[in-house]
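thought: user wants a sequence for this fold. calling inverse folding tool.
action: design(structure=
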């Protein structure tokens, strides 16, 4: 064991030496999903703000709508002028992007950036919080000695994304690209996003739990879907912690508080929304009516069923349950913010002073450093480690040379 450690240490030294000699050899790891079809999915980017930014600036940096950013972060859609809201640096925002199949791999290329006078490839990469490396921007735009960055030039920013058939471990998910920060481990990231270490390893094709700052991980976010809800002409997958606006912004859908069932109700922000009420009832979409019966409780729900143009479909569903939760007759007031949507919807205010909306979104995921492997009884077993020692040390060398050769 001790011998093994020494050997690995020597090899790590060697590796460092190589790195110093060839500083560009090893770049951050990132999962690549091969694809061959024209379908796409919705994906998320986890964006750690590099500096204070207005929501409108963030939206234009990624070329997405302010409202979609609000939705992805479960921020109140009804406040006025959200685009003027300033978020402090180090806020962690989820940015929704489309994830198509481009040249055989999944990536988003729908973000263009207009180069400014002082920009370098590295400063542009930093502006996107290292979701994309300077090297990747350079390659996709054919930047070289002859074709240099120029003020006013429009370049494509390739952003990492994955779909993996909208699923992980058999449950519906939306994948979020996440840049590993200093001090983070698979278990700390998993704990934040309800994923197990095994799942993160499997999704990212990692053979071991070691990740490095700057690596871009695909993190599966459990999602609720309309797949089994029999909607007309519409399907929706909404990650936990987000909502989606649909039917011309008239309807807002998100996961239930304690489950992954998709619930929808009037958003309260759409204009000229009609058909929000179930036929021949006083129930609006999202309303639940309960009647106590001798045998228990009759529950009637008015549920959303999709839309076609301005026409919104809804239907009643009856069921009985053993008990009525709450009072005799509960009728949620119409147009109220959907009580079924979970999550802390942090109210946006237009107050000129700070306490910015993302106050607690922002916590740049404080991570407890992974308890350095206690050689005694760590979960992955000491004897296995002994056995894999030789293999590991071989691998360290192999990998370093592979990187050398790949250049
Ligand atoms: C497309 O990819 C899937 C797996 O991603 C594979 O099963 C299928 O055979 C491929 N189809 C073609 C035409 O290459
Ligand atoms: C982005 O730039 C590329 C090439 O520079 C161009 O073909 C494409 O239309 C642009 N996309 C947008 C959304 O501006
Ligand atoms: C994708 O998921 C659907 C159900 O969600 C399943 O029917 C289909 O077989 C999956 N396709 C692949 C290639 O895994
Ligand atoms: C993901 O789900 C959406 C919505 O149901 C569907 O349109 C899309 O084809 C799926 N994409 C993949 C890659 O499975
Ligand atoms: C679904 O959309 C198609 C056109 O895309 C339309 O012909 C059909 O009537 C729609 N069905 C419903 C139930 O709205
Ligand atoms: C409860 O619902 C059942 C059908 O689901 C119906 O037969 C019954 O009459 C209802 N009871 C009351 C008190 O509404
Ligand atoms: C559900 O119950 C209501 C009365 O509470 C009734 O008018 C309606 O027809 C029932 N619908 C179904 C599908 O059973
Ligand atoms: C039930 O209704 C009564 C009045 O009808 C009200 O005082 C009480 O707060 C209600 N309880 C709940 C849990 O809503
Ligand atoms: C959904 O998110 C909430 C907090 O935002 C969390 O408490 C809940 O466990 C999550 N559900 C799933 C299935 O991950
Ligand atoms: C935000 O986090 C701080 C600690 O970082 C805590 O003191 C404060 O109560 C939190 N605010 C909310 C609204 O959770
Ligand atoms: C782990 O084993 C070492 C000796 O190999 C011992 O000194 C140390 O106290 C042990 N730690 C725990 C937590 O058992
Ligand atoms: C370590 O594992 C052994 C058995 O494998 C057990 O007897 C011992 O209590 C464990 N020690 C700790 C600190 O968990």
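)
observation: tool returned 407 residues.
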């Amino acid at each position: 064991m001790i011998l093994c450690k020494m050997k690995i240490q020597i090899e790590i030294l060697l590796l460092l030496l190589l790195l110093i000699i060839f500083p560009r050899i090893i770049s951050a790891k990132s999962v690549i999903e091969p694809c061959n079809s024209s379908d796409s999915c919705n994906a998320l980017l986890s964006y750690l703000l590099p500096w204070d930014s207005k929501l409108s600036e963030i939206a234009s940096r990624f070329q997405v709508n302010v409202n979609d950013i609000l939705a992805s972060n479960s921020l109140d859609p009804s406040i006025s002028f959200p685009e003027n809201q300033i978020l402090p640096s180090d806020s962690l925002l989820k940015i929704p992007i489309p994830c198509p199949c481009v040249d055989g791999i999944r990536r988003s290329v729908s973000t263009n950036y207009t180069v400014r006078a002082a920009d370098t490839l590295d400063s542009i990469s930093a502006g996107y919080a290292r979701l994309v490396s300077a090297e990747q921007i350079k390659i996709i735009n054919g930047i070289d000695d002859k074709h240099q960055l120029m003020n006013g030039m429009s370049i494509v920013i390739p952003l990492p994304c994955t779909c993996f058939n909208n699923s992980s471990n058999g449950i519906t998910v939306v994948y979020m690209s996440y840049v590993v920060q200093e001090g983070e481990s698979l278990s700390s990231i998993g704990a934040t996003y309800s994923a197990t270490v095994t799942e993160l390893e499997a999704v990212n094709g990692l053979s071991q739990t070691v990740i490095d700052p700057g690596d871009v991980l695909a993190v599966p976010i459990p999602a609720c879907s309309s797949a089994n809800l029999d909607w007309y002409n519409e399907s929706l997958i909404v990650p936990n912690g987000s909502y989606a606006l649909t039917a011309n912004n008239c309807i807002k859908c998100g996961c239930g508080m304690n489950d992954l069932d998709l619930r929808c109700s009037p958003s309260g922000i759409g204009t000229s929304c009609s058909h929000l009420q179930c036929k021949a009832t006083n129930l609006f979409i999202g309303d639940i009516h309960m009647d106590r019966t001798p045998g228990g409780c009759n529950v009637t729900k008015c549920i959303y069923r999709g839309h076609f143009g301005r026409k919104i479909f809804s239907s009643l569903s009856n069921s009985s349950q053993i008990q009525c939760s709450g009072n005799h007759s509960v009728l949620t007031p119409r147009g109220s913010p959907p009580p079924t949507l979970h999550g802390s919807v942090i109210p946006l205010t237009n107050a000129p002073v700070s306490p910015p909306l993302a106050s607690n979104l922002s916590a740049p995921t404080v991570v407890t450093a992974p308890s350095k492997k206690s050689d005694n009884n760590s979960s992955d077993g000491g004897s296995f480690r002994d056995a894999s020692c030789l293999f590991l040390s071989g691998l360290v060398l192999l990998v370093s040379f592979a990187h050398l050769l790949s250049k």
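thought: summarizing for user.
answer: Here is the designed sequence. Residues 12-25, 327-401 have pLDDT under 50 and may be disordered.
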